[in-house]
Amino acid sequence: MPDRLITHLRHVALAVPDYDKQHTFFTDTWGLSEVANDSGVSFLAAEGSPEQYIVRLRKADEKRIDLVSFGAATPEDVDALAARLVADDVRIVSEPGPVDTPGGGYGFRFFDIDGRTVEVSSDVATRQHRRVEEREAVPVRLSHVVLNSTDINRTRQWYERHLGFALSDSLSSPHMGELMHFMRCNPQHHSLAIAKAPHPSLHHISFEMRGIDEYMRGTGRLLRSGIRKIWGPGRHLAGDNTFSYFLDPHGNTLEYTTELELLDEDAWHPHVYDFTQPEVTDQWGTANPMDEFVAKESFNDPDRGVFVAPPV
Question: Which InterPro entries match (predicted)?
Answer without folding.
Answer: Glyas_Bleomycin-R_OHBP_Dase, Glyas_Fos-R_dOase_dom, MMCE/EMCE_epimerase, VOC_core
